[in-house]
Write the structure tokens for this entry.
Amino acid sequence: MRVAFLGLGIMGSRMAANLDRSDFELTVWNRTTAKAQAFCGGHRAQRAPTPAQAAEGADVVVTMVVDGPQVEHVLLGTDGVASGAHEGVLCVDCSTIGAAATQRIAAALHRRGIRMVDAPVTGSAPRAQDGTLTIMVGGTTADVERARPVLQAMGETIIHVGPLGHGQTVKLLNNAVAATNAATLAQALIAGARAGLDLEALVAVMRSGSAASTMVELKAEPMRKHDYSTLFKLDHMLKDVRLCLEESESAGAAFPYAALTRETLVAAATMGHGEDDFAALLEPLERGAGIKL
């Protein structure tokens, strides 16, 4: 199967590497040419100068970029995938852009004879590295099954969650819960520090007790050490929480805890932590408490 992979950032480069290891015939494109050249230097992939040229001859096109405007530009813009792909090619968008943008872009692609599924991922960079991402997929059964071999090369758990756009909604809700969990963890660490607790003991109990979570495993130590090496950018998490709140509002459902988390993320971004890992949401909470862990 010939696969074009568009977007070689923190997640995309690792996902594309797993496709290379799975012996797909791989062509890659990235907005920053140097990243694509570096990737091809370490893998068997070919580099294309434009998304349209990457899509020429491809059976499946995978996109992993930042937001809706970027997905739209890469797929439908000048020198976009729609300009080079043959009729019937399948676009698999692994970005997180929201259901409305997905459905609008898919409709434009369908008018050109191009199929699409939304397949956002969760698991951060470590699971992208080892190919154990969870991927939630929206689309027709036929399109999802056609995408499955590609998805299985990048993820361990592939869940067909419903029609086109539902993958996006599930991902946004998942990330809003994760971000809110991380904010709650940060507040617990601050409260523990204020009370004079041994934070290592506190974290050990949370890991083995009813507070256990992926966020405790991934973020407790980085927060304690103020190590914000990026696994998932704070700006990207803020974008996802904002999109989740927009979709929740459209559905007539309140999500006040996610709204509070959004404000914490905004404060951290304002402090200059947008490019850092979203564990940096600790910073404004520490400032408000007048304490450093």
Residues 67 and 97 are 5 Å apart (CA to CA). The mean pLDDT is 97. DSSP finds 14 helices and nine strands in the chain.
